[in-house]
UniProtKB/TrEMBL annotation:
Keywords: Signal. InterPro entries: Peptidase_S1_PA, Peptidase_S1_PA_chymotrypsin. The keyword Signal applies. It comes from the Eukaryota. SUPFAM superfamilies: Trypsin-like serine proteases (SSF50494). This is Peptidase S1 domain-containing protein. Residues 1-16 form the signal peptide. It comes from Cylicocyclus nassatus (Nematode worm).
Amino acid sequence: MWLSICILCLLHLATCMRDVEEIEWNRSAYLVKTLAEAQDGDRVLGCTGTLITPSLVLTSSKCVDNTENNAVVIYAKGSRYRKRAVASITINGDFALLEFHPIKDELCPRSPAPVRLSRLPLNITLTAAPWEKVNLVDLPEAKCRMTGFETVSVSNFSFIHNVMQTPAQVVRDGDRLIVDVASGSPVCWDDIGLPLECLLPNKGWTQVGLLHSVIRNVDNRTNSTLTDCDDIRVLVFATFSDDTLPTMLENHAVQMFVTTKRCFTQAPVETTERELIDEEAQTSDE
């Protein structure tokens, strides 16, 4: 109850989403779709996630019922898309990690091609802590954005590949961030897990959280189904402001450091001609 009251008090401070831009999926190829079998076995949970290493996707814990779920990740490959069966699932708090056989494509292409991994608040240095907790105090003043898939029909989620991007004005609510979408939003139920990115000093666009839940308009009694997104009014984002996510990533630390250095530092690890030939051969075999 107190959370709802607090959110209602803050809504007038938040700017509704606008200026929605359609972009090509392969220009934001870190964005993926996740499909997971529900615990009852009769439903499939469709969500959004981000590729953070060649073999890891980060999404919301609401997108998987348990660690034994059968799940699939759908990712962009040029103008096409590919699927990967999930081998293991880790859940902790608001977050879920889906691990699968590594993608062999080049995920850190040379500029100006876009990087195909989501950037996390990770430092590659021996003079600072590797994980930099997100400072929620500064984010309401930062430039932020959301990137997710267009929703034409919730039941058709896995077949729609148009990507939408929109600026977002965030408001802090405890350890979470909220965004008011009272004026209409492209965000829908299947966007749970989509990344919230903010422009951070010395890092550029960095994922600082993910969509974990939505709040609907409870006054609209005539529209109470989950197949319509028009009554969604508030987006609630889980943030990387504590040790939950880095604890989950501990067993993948080496891979995280290598991919972060390769993709996001000014002096990335160079790929030799032989490595490029090997990667192309591996890609053609997939």
